[in-house]
């Protein structure tokens, strides 16, 4: 899988601590080495449907997949903890 900076990707794991779910879309903004020489990480910025930044997260590179031309967006409500 070839990942590039500023590419749109989607999650293949849930991130409940950020209210993010498998299939949510983000922009890859950086790559980071693992501090103990394990899997390289990705820094992602997540936006809402209006283009407002809502999260910046660091996750393993294997947890993201590049978007493909045969995929379409869908909408869900972000349930924020109160």
Uncertain runs: none
Strands in their spatial order, largest beta sheet: 4-3-2-1-5
Q: Helicity range of the residues?
A: under 10%
- Taken as a percent bin, the fraction of beta residues is 35-45%
Query: What is the radius of gyration?
Result: 13 Å
Note the run of SSEs as H and E: EEEEE
Cα distance spanning the termini: 38 Å
Main pleated sheet: 5 strands, antiparallel
Question: What would your notes on this structure say?
Answer:
This is DUF4926 domain-containing protein. The chain is mainly β and 82 residues long. It has one domain (8-66). It has no helices and 5 strands. A 5-stranded antiparallel sheet has the order 4-3-2-1-5, with no helix packed on it. The radius of gyration is 13 Å and the shape is globular. The termini are far apart.
What distinguishing features does this structure have?
DUF4926 domain-containing protein; 5-stranded antiparallel β-sheet; mainly beta; 82 residues
Layout of SSEs?
Blueprint: E1 8-11, E2 25-32, E3 41-47, E4 53-60, E5 64-66
Antiparallel strand pairs: 1-2, 1-5, 2-3, 3-4
Protein name: DUF4926 domain-containing protein
Organism: Pseudanabaena frigida
In short:
With about 80 residues, the chain is an all-beta fold.
């Amino acid at each position: 899988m070839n990942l590039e900076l500023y590419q749109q990707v989607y999650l293949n794991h849930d991130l409940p601590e950020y209210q993010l779910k498998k299939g949510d879309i983000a922009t890859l903004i950086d790559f980071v080495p693992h501090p103990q020489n394990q899997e390289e990480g990705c820094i992602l910025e997540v936006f809402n449907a209006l283009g407002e930044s809502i999260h910046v997260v660091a996750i393993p590179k294997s947890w993201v997949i590049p978007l493909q031309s045969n995929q379409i967006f869908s909408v869900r409500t972000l349930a924020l903890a109160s």
